Amino acid sequence: MIQVFTTGGTIDKVYFDANSEFKIGESLLNELLAEANITGKYNVAGLLCKDSLDLTDNDRYLILQAVERCTAGRILITHGTDTMPDTASVLASVSSKTIVLTGAMQPARMRRSDAVFNIGFAWAAASLLPAGVYIAMNGEVFEAGTVRKNLKAQRFERTSAD
């Protein structure tokens, strides 16, 4: 069984009209898991509903506490991409579980979103990787502490050699 925690981020953003900004909406995670044809057992729990730029140290501590209390050995966390590496670094103190963070560069509600692919890919990573903390985005897996988001290229990249 994989425990899935949602925290908000672009993956859950909704665009209301041309005069409004994106806002975090209700998570589509169950729909995304179904669309990715995930048939394994999972439980989804919402922790936060925030843009990752708005996450505080207290929010990251709340995520850490939820992970530490969780009885599942495999955990998937949806998270905003801007500060995903920061949260992964906080979670790195948990060494006995496989924790995978993922998100999307475009909201899941948009036609050309990478959300379904990233969810499926992160599911596979969470199912197969050994204990540790990882970011799974756009077909690559990065260990916590070795990754940053390249805003200009709109992708994640390693910060140190493997």
Search tags:
162 residues, alpha/beta, two-stranded antiparallel ribbon, 4 helices, 10 strands, 26% helix, globular
Task: Give a written overview of the molecule.
Helices cover 26% and strands 31% of the residues. The chain is an alpha/beta fold. The strands form three sheets. Strands 4-1-5-6-7-8 form a six-stranded mixed sheet, with helices on both faces. It has a two-stranded antiparallel ribbon with strand order 2-3. The protein has a two-stranded antiparallel sheet with strand order 9-10. 40% of the residues are buried. The mean pLDDT is 93.
Nutshell version of this structure?
The protein is α/β, with parallel strands linked by helices and 162 residues long. The chain has helices at residues 29-35, 57-69, 84-91, 115-128; strands at 2-8, 13-15, 22-24, 42-50, 74-78, 98-102, 132-137, 140-143, 147-150, 155-158.
Topology at a glance:
Blueprint: E1 2-8, E2 13-15, E3 22-24, H1 29-35, E4 42-50, H2 57-69, E5 74-78, H3 84-91, E6 98-102, H4 115-128, E7 132-137, E8 140-143, E9 147-150, E10 155-158
Parallel strand pairs: 1-4, 1-5, 5-6, 6-7
Antiparallel strand pairs: 2-3, 7-8, 9-10
User: Based on the structure, what is the oligomeric state of the protein chains?
Assistant: single chain
List the helices and strands in order.
EEEHEHEHEHEEEE
Shape: globular
Gyration radius (Cα, Å) is: 14 Å
Structural class by SSE content: alpha/beta
Low-confidence parts lasting 5 or more residues at pLDDT below 50?
none
**Helix-residue proportion:** 25-40%
Largest sheet: 6 strands, mixed
Total DSSP helices: 4
Q: Provide mean pLDDT, rounded.
A: 93
Strand order in the sheet with the most strands: 4-1-5-6-7-8
